[in-house]
Structures are given as C-alpha cells and as structure tokens.
Specification:
Layout: H1 2-15, E1 17-18, E2 44-48, E3 52-53, H2 61-75, E4 79-81, H3 100-105, E5 110-119, E6 122-131, E7 136-145, H4 150-166, E8 175-182, E9 189-196, E10 203-204, E11 211-217, E12 223-230, E13 233-240, E14 246-252, E15 256-261, E16 267-274, E17 277-284, E18 290-292, E19 300-305, E20 311-316, E21 323-328, E22 335-336, E23 343-349, E24 356-362, E25 365-371, E26 379-384, E27 386-392, E28 398-404, E29 411-417, E30 424-426, E31 431-437
Parallel strand pairs: 2-4, 2-5, 3-5
Antiparallel strand pairs: 1-7, 5-6, 6-7, 8-9, 8-31, 9-10, 11-12, 12-13, 13-14, 15-16, 16-17, 17-18, 19-20, 20-21, 21-22, 23-24, 24-25, 25-26, 27-28, 28-29, 29-30
C-alpha cells in the first residue's frame, strides 16, 4: 500500500550506503557504456547472478530480486541478460570478488552480483555492478527494507544499473495508472486501475459505477486527477494514493476534457465548454480560483505544460483543423507548431523538456510521434488502426500508449522507445486504454 511505500522512500534515503572497501576495486569511470542516442542499439550482454542468501530466511529473495532486475533491463531493449545456465561461478564464489576471466569466457560485458540477509524485521539487499573487461566495480548499494517491498528494491537496482551504463535516468521504479475497460460496446465499464510499470501489484481504484477517463499523476506521484461521468454529469476528481480518499475538484456542466496537473502540483489545467466555446482553464487544486487561459472562438483542448511551467502545448482547430500549438503558460502568444499532413491531437511535453509527443491522424491511420517544441524534427514512431494517448516515462526516453488493431478489437497498452524501436506489450488483466506514467516513486 502507498503509506508503506512512503515510509520506504524515507528509509531508503537514510540507509543507502556505498560498498567500497579495503582490497576491493573502487568505482571508476565506466568503460562499459551504451550509446542510446542511436536508432538501433545492439543489446549489451549482461550477467545477473542469483544473489547470495547469507542465511536461509533470506530465501526466496536471492533469486526473485535478480529475476526482476533481469526482466526490467531486458524490457528496455538495451540489455541482453545471459542465461544462468552458462554461468561458471556461483554466488558464494564471488564474495568478495568475481573471477572476471570466467565472465569474459561467456562474453558478459557487465556483471551484477549481490547478497541478501535478514536483519530483524527487515531484509538487507546488497548489489554490485562490475565492468567485466575493466575489472572494476562500477556501482554498489545496500537497501534495508520491509520484505514486502522486495520488488521495489529490484526496480531501484535496475534503475541504478540503467543509469550507470547509459548515462540516462532509469524508469523502472514507477507506476502506470490507466483506464481498465470491460463489457460490450453499448455497456462499457471503465474503471481506474494502477500497477507497477512491469504489470505487477495491479489493483483497481474505482468500482465501475462511474465511467472514468484521462487519469493523470501529480508531479510527486501521490495523487491522480481524472474525469468521471455519471449519467451526463462530468466531474473532475483528485484521488489520494496514500489514503485512498478522493475529492471532487469540480462539477462541470457541458463538455469537459483531459485534466492534467501543472508541474508545481498546485493547479490542474483542462478544457471546458462554456457558452458554446471550448477553452483551456487553470483550476487551483485547493478549491480556489478558476482562470481562463485561452480565449479564441476555436476548440482548445489537451493542455500540457513544459517541465519548467513557463510554456504550454495544446490542441486547437483555430486554423481549420486539429493542430498543435505552443504558448506561454497563461495562453499568450500561441504559435502553431504542427504542419505535416493530417491532423494532430493529445500533445504532451517530455519531462526533459526537449520533445512533445502527440497522436496524428492521416488517411485513416493513427500515429504516435514526437517533435521538438518549435515543431522541427517530427518523427513518427508507430502506427495502426488506432494508436493514441502517449505518456512519457520519467526519463523522457520511453513512451506508453494504447493500441487497437481492428474495429471492435481489444485495446491494449504498449511502450516504445523514442527512436521508434523496442515496441512492447504492457500486460494488463483485461483491456486497457489512456495510460499515464508516474515519476520515480522515491
């Protein structure tokens, strides 16, 4: 539950320590490196050893934790975990150091080792990342946590490895909230659901009495804003993941679209139809002021602010068809940035600020793409009968979206790298749409 995760995050900050020691190679500049700026990357062979169980009560974490680490790294498309059947050394033989010649023999470029032990009502999980050819320790950390949070430890270790080798931030210790769909087309049930980014720890946050749409995380990943319809009445909610409580941000007659938190978490931007005009508004999350940001006679929707909060991208038909615009955060100085064939929708700013992801429609096909905030360097990453709703992983390197391959077919979640490679299914219990990716949880 989220209250436990909050306690874990605080404990981890205070208890993470380095593992350097007398007689051990100290962390050095990484000779092992993946250049992820290229479109096609040959996955790096990496050996992820079972961890050493210092005492019998540490099982099964000695196998489960490195298993999740391996799955995380493999899912990025940048690493190829080597089959354990090829290993020439066991966990006990690598304490305190591995024999690097054995790992070179099976072509491992990097090696992950570790150990697990019980410390009262906690487990201490220690891992080390080794450069096999440089024969140096690249990283080393120990985590002390409640045993129930062993999966989170695995994701944090995977993040450490990813960051050390690629030079980019990791994205494994995250969650995805989405709309879980079930039932026939004329009686569709849409529930709010949340899970870890790898599909584990799945749970439903709503019971299906209301039709939910467009869930979005707050910047600290502790709250979710979303729309819900009961009958024809639209309401915007904020759901507190720590307490499980939800509150109504507002009741809005007429059409309302896509609430999204501002980068400071104090406001929500969304579009509302008033007096026959659909404009973008900013709402104080504490029930304060409502400010209108756009004032054209066009339909303005899907606002998303830049990470620094200074600019806003949104969708508008003010030029005659749906296109993407960028303006000041207050809606001033709007400039069209999309000029390719077709129409554009659902723009969302990258957490790094360098790209805007979007949905594009052209000649009956849908596309997920990215472009720079000035409209240059448009790249289409994937296409299909229906692909829609891009959302960014916190490192700005990976997108999630939903796909339907045929009329009436199931909707599923997928992820893809911004180079257009490594498209993967995100497993959910049933049909799924409208994902939103959290920031790193800690």
């Amino acid at each position: 539950m989220r209250p436990v995760l909050r306690a874990f995050a605080v404990a981890a900050v205070g208890l993470v320590v380095g593992l350097g020691g007398a007689g051990l190679p100290q962390p050095a500049s990484a000779q092992v490196r993946i250049d992820i700026t290229r479109g096609v990357v040959e996955p790096m062979p990496i050996a992820i050893s079972p961890f050493l169980a210092v005492d019998p009560s540490a099982a099964p974490f000695d196998a489960d934790i490195p298993g999740v680490v391996a799955n995380d790294l493999a899912s990025s498309g940048l690493f190829r975990p080597i089959d354990r059947g090829a290993f020439l050394q066991g966990p006990a033989e690598m304490n305190p150091m591995p024999d690097f010649a054995d790992w070179r023999q099976i072509n491992a470029q990097a090696l992950v080792t570790g150990q697990v032990r019980r410390e009262g009502d906690q487990i201490a999980v220690e891992f080390r990342l080794w450069d096999v050819f440089g024969q140096t320790q690249m990283a080393g950390v120990v985590y002390r946590v409640d045993p129930k949070l062993w999966r989170r430890v695995a994701h944090m270790i995977a993040d450490q490895i990813y960051e050390r080798i690629t030079g980019e931030g990791g994205y494994f210790d995250t969650q995805i909230v989405y709309v879980a769909e079930s039932g026939p087309a004329n009686k569709r049930v849409k529930r709010l659901a949340i899970m870890d980014q790898d599909g584990a720890n799945h749970r439903f946050l709503s019971d299906g009495a209301d039709q939910v749409l467009t869930p979005r995380f707050s910047p600290n990943s502790r709250e979710i804003t979303y729309m819900a319809f009961r009958g024809r009445q639209a309401r915007v909610f904020i759901y507190d993941l720590d307490t499980g409580r939800q509150r109504v941000l507002g009741d809005f007659p007429g059409m309302t679209f896509a609430p999204r938190f501002t980068p400071d978490g104090r406001s929500v931007v969304m579009s509302m139809a008033r007096d026959g005009v659909t404009s973008i508004y900013r709402l104080d999350t504490n029930g304060g002021s409502v400010q209108r940001l756009t004032s054209s006679q066009a339909i303005d929707t899907s606002p998303s602010l830049s990470p620094d909060g200074r600019r806003m991208t949104f969708n508008s038909d003010r030029s005659g068809g749906q296109q993407i615009y960028v303006s000041g955060a207050d809606g001033s100085g709007a400039q069209r940035i999309s000029f390719g064939n077709g129409t554009y929708a659902t723009p969302v700013w990258s957490p790094r600020g360098d790209l805007i992801a979007f949905t594009k429609m052209n000649r009956g096909r849908f596309y997920i793409g990215v472009m720079r905030p000035d409209g240059s360097d448009e790249r289409l990453l994937t296409d299909g009968y229906l692909v829609e709703g891009p959302t960014w992983a916190p490192n700005g390197r990976v997108l999630a979206f939903f796909r339907q391959d045929r009329p009436g077919g199931p909707t599923r979640l997928y992820s893809i790298d911004i180079t257009g490679y490594n498209e993967r299914l995100i497993v959910t219990p049933g049909e799924a749409s409208d994902p939103a990716w959290s920031a790193l949880i800690r």
